Amino acid sequence: MLSQRNAVTQTKVVQRTRAAEGRAGRSARAGVRANADADLGKAAARENKPLEKANLFSAKFTPFAGDASEEYSLDEVIYRSKSGGLLDVTHDMEALAIYPPEYWKALFDERVGKTTWPYGSGVWSKKEWVLPGIADEDIVSMFEGNSNLFWAERYGREYLGMSDLWVKQCGNSHTGSFKDLGMTALVSQVNRMRKMGKPLSAVGCASTGDTSAALSAYAAAAGIPSIVFLPADKISVAQLVQPIANGALVLSIDTDFDGCMRLIREVTAELPIYLANSLNSLRLEGQKTAAIEICQQFNWEVPDYVIIPGGNLGNVYAFFKGFKMCKDLGLVDRLPRMVVAQAANANPLYRAYKKGWDKFEAVKAEPTFASAIQIGDPVSIDRAIYALTETNGIVEEATEEEMMDAAAEADLTGMFNCPHTGVALAALKKLREQQVIAPSDRTVVISTAHGLKFTHSKVAYHEKRLEGLESRYANPPVVVKDDFSAVMDVLSTRLNK
Ligand SMILES: Cc1ncc(COP(=O)(O)O)c(C=O)c1O
Ligand SMILES: N[C@@H](CCOP(=O)(O)O)C(=O)O
């Protein structure tokens, strides 16, 4: 008890000190901001344009790895480099670096939680680092991002012996997954291109359920037709109804995700349908803001570990890019160690990692409760390997039982996790057991979707209906007669346990 009281007093002292530091920091940042604004004003004046219209920053497509002189405007419809490799969005880092780290911190901090269009969005609050050239009126946003960085205090302490565990709730979003972050960027760019007269009749994607939900919602908001290719009977009912409700053309195809992906690539090469999967690097520009947001939420400090469930593998690179930009522009001083967590039933990255990256081989992805990552031939494999090698990264896997147990266990401390987040939590558990992650390491688990999208498997778990699984944390409802003594019997049995 005494030590608890000491801890509370200590926390209050830390809070008061931080508040004082915060006040001093805010006024210093306001000064930096005023100076940098004056510089921006001068630069705009040189261009003879009002500040907000001056094109001070820019971005373009370049090959992900390859000829640095090959480049394309973001207004071009292009998904691959000349050699057939992946593309990346490259920013004019020199222009961004004209402004000191304190300028960017102050600017980003100032925009959080406001209604000012479009900066109240967690993605567009970082507009200069995302799509600097797009006009505010072309942006299609639902004010995505700004998601809770949940301090998993009880889960960390009681189940993992950790004191600094956080869960970034990217699934607490308009369509219930992190895909909204990328889709606002991509659909905004499509909106701009259509206004410019580019012949793009629709946007399209292959999906395991979350990309399609986000694409159809953002396209509907902008009045752009959308087409989604879904593997028949392989996504949840909640995910299926999302594009249906948003008026998308939904093709339910008798194949798996990898088959849908192959088809959409062929179709978008033939028809004026803009490809909205993460093969298109515009998506990753929006997704990377979650990493910048994590640094911001930690007052511009970098966590030690970031654990991400991986499928098509765009997101791990997006996070890497966000952290790297923060480091390169001096907002933080290092990169976190990145961990990708895969379902054992769909683990091509894990297998390649175990072979020392010697050889990557696509696999036939088997069914998994983490159905959104049932992917055997990830399009961003090269991006993922790069992000992991640059951060001394790790890949872990989780069996069906491990992921469902981990999600259920964490739910007992107030969360409501989807199976994909369960995969990441199970990976964390293993890394704690192996003593790779230490008790005080600041660790962030990326929760990629809302648990409410996956109630079917969660209910089946709690009703012990999942074949081959013990369902260790099952908590089925108790069926009781409409009778006072029957209710009292149940309560006394339970309460005396
Ligand atoms: C809920 C969820 N988690 C994780 C992922 C994996 O993300 P990525 O494909 O970028 O690796 C996806 C989609 O693939 C997803 O929908
Ligand atoms: N989980 C994804 C799979 C496709 O990923 P993408 O990021 O390449 O669009 C989905 O929900 O469809």
Automatic annotation (TrEMBL):
The keyword S-adenosyl-L-methionine is annotated on this UniProt entry: yes
Coiled coil start-end: none
Domain Tryptophan synthase beta chain-like PALP: 140-448
A GO cellular component entry from the record: chloroplast
Residue positions where N6-(pyridoxal phosphate)lysine is found in the record: K179
Pathway: Amino-acid biosynthesis; L-threonine biosynthesis; L-threonine from L-aspartate: step 5/5
Keywords: Amino-acid biosynthesis, Chloroplast, Lyase, Plastid, Pyridoxal phosphate, S-adenosyl-L-methionine, Transit peptide
Enzymatic reactions: O-phospho-L-homoserine + H2O = L-threonine + phosphate
Family statement drawn from the similarity comment of this UniProt entry: Belongs to the threonine synthase family.
UniProt protein name: threonine synthase
Organism the protein comes from: Ostreococcus lucimarinus (strain CCE9901)
Taxon lineage: Eukaryota, Viridiplantae, Chlorophyta, Mamiellophyceae, Mamiellales
